Amino acid sequence: MLGAYLNGEAEMEEVIDYDRKTRLYRIFQDKTVSDSGRILDSEKLEHLLEVCRLKADYVIIDSSPMGVTSDVEVLMKYADSVLLVVRQDWSDIRAVNDKADIVRQSRKDFSGFLLNAFHREPDLMDGTPGGYGYYGYRRYHKGR
Predict the structure, then answer these.
(1) 88 partner at 20 to 30 Å CA-CA among 6, 9, 95, 105?
(2) What dihedral do alpha carbons 41, 46, 49, 51 form, nearest 10°?
């Protein structure tokens, strides 16, 4: 869809989808695109994002992981701010630091990290996941 527009095979109106339920405009890429760096670094994408900024309060660009393709570094030039998503127990801290350095060097606003697939530890006081323990709020509900 996005690739079809950027390659001149579709019109902008054909690739922008509006979901009435969520009231979100969405643009999807359903197929792998060869030479994605070339088509992402284009006036067509820049124009598409300008139109999106006129229609929406926020434009969120979701991309493949930084270590997988160079697309992220190309897309960062269109972003106002960058948020790195880091998966717990998966991402190597050195790689995370390297990616954060790339964002900082781009001179873009770095919003920080979002921890994905977070594993919550059980509460040590009472053994329940996320509980407050006896000394937390629960004591007020036990008929003190």
Answers:
(1) 105
(2) -160
Q: Pairing state of beta strands 81-87 and 109-116?
A: parallel
The DSSP secondary structure of 71-85, one letter per residue, reads HHHHHGGG-SEEEEE
**Residue among 45, 60, 55 nearest 18 (CA):** 55
Question: Whole-model pTM above 0.85?
Answer: no
Token reading at 23: 């009231």
The tens digit of pLDDT for each residue in 88-126 reads 878 888 988 998 999 999 889 999 998 888 777 665 555
At 46 the pLDDT is 93
- Give the integer Cα–Cα distance in Å for 4 and 15: 8
Phi, psi of 102 (to 5 degrees): -60, -45
Residues 135, 144: Cα–Cα separation, whole Å: 12
Between the alpha carbon of residue 84 and those of residues 56, 102, 128, 143, the distances in Å are 22, 11, 30, 45
Measured in Å, how far apart are the chain's first and last C-alpha atoms?
A: 61
Q: Read off the amino acid at residue 34.
A: S
Q: How far apart are CA 53 and CA 76, in angstroms?
A: 16
The span from the CA of 132 to the CA of 116, in Å, is 23
